[in-house]
Amino acid sequence: MNSTGYGGWIRDFETARQERAGQGDPDWRTGVPLHPAIRRSVQRFQVGEDGDGAELITKAEASGDAEYASAVRMFVAEERNHARLLALLLASGDAPTIASHWSDRIFVTLRRALGLRLELLVLMIAEVVALRYYRALRDGGEDALTREVAGRVLADEERHVPFHCHRLRRALRPLPAPARVLVTSGWRAALAVACLVVAVDHGPALRRLGVGRGRFAVEVVRSSGPIAAAMR
Predict the structure, then answer these.
(1) Fewest C-beta in 10 Å: which of 39, 53, 103, 193?
(2) Is 56 exposed, middle or buried (0-12, 13-18, 19+ CB in 10 A)?
(3) How far, CA to CA in Å, does 49 sit from each of 1, 40, 84, 136?
(4) Are the CB atoms for 24 and 195 separated by under 8 Å?
(5) Residues 6+ away with beta carbon under 8 Å from 160
(6) Which residue from 92, 74, 80 is spatially nearest to 26, judged by alpha carbons?
(7) Which helix (H) or strand (E) holds 108?
């Protein structure tokens, strides 16, 4: 299969990698213990970021598009770096990581059971929820280190969503317009359900961050409209 225009994404990922290398890590010595509700919340998101991405890479390589597979490997590397940053944030406040969480096990099981297109749709649910979560953590974090780490992760996630939209737009293009609407409407419905689950599960942390369950859910669902349109 011929290249489908991922050279620009590869350059974006490489630019971000070089910027991270030049910037170096935050000063972990400035860390303080996180509020218990926020600590538990960050631990759960850290588990979600800590997947090895091997299944996604395998499916991307099987697509026959070498540029896309390269871009996916760079995306997975950024997700692993997020897990590393969150683990070090926790450690700086003398908090451990956790081995697993039920919500992550569900997402991983679904993604591994599906083909590339459906896996990306499930992955996009997690990515869109993560956008609002890390924004809340950046804006409402109680110490400078937490806000810095959240800001770094958020900057990457803001590139990841359009990257996956680009691929999904190409993947859905062969479908008739009504089918594309049906797929993206179903995706928005699934996102709304997942968002409600996250809002309940992370409610104490969201309140501490000044967002609250209801506002978090409404803003995530509202943000999904333009993203669904971009997929179509």
Answers:
(1) 193
(2) buried
(3) 31, 15, 9, 17
(4) no
(5) 75, 78, 127
(6) 92
(7) helix 102-113
pLDDT at site 150: 98
Q: Is 101 exposed, middle or buried (0-12, 13-18, 19+ CB in 10 A)?
A: middle
Measure the CA–CA gap between 89 and 102, rounded to whole angstroms.
22
Q: What is residue 50's predicted lDDT score, i.e. its pLDDT?
A: 78
Amino acid 1: pLDDT:
33
Instruction: List, for residues 115-168, the tens digit of each pLDDT value.
Output: 788 889 999 999 999 999 999 999 999 999 999 999 999 999 999 999 999 999
Residue 226's contacts (CB-CB under 8 Å, 6 or more residues apart) are none
Q: Please choose, from the candidates 128, 129, 108, 100, the residue with its C-alpha nearest in 3D space to the C-alpha of residue 56.
A: 108
Q: Could you give the CA distance from residue 51 to residue 53 in angstroms, rounded to a whole number? A: 6
Residue with tokens 């000044």: 210
Residues of the chain with pLDDT under 50: 1-3
Cα torsion 72, 76, 78, 81 to 10°: value is: -170
Q: Rounded to whole angstroms, how far apart are CA atoms 60 and 66?
A: 8
Sign of CA dihedral 167, 173, 176, 177: positive
Residue with tokens 């803001």: 158
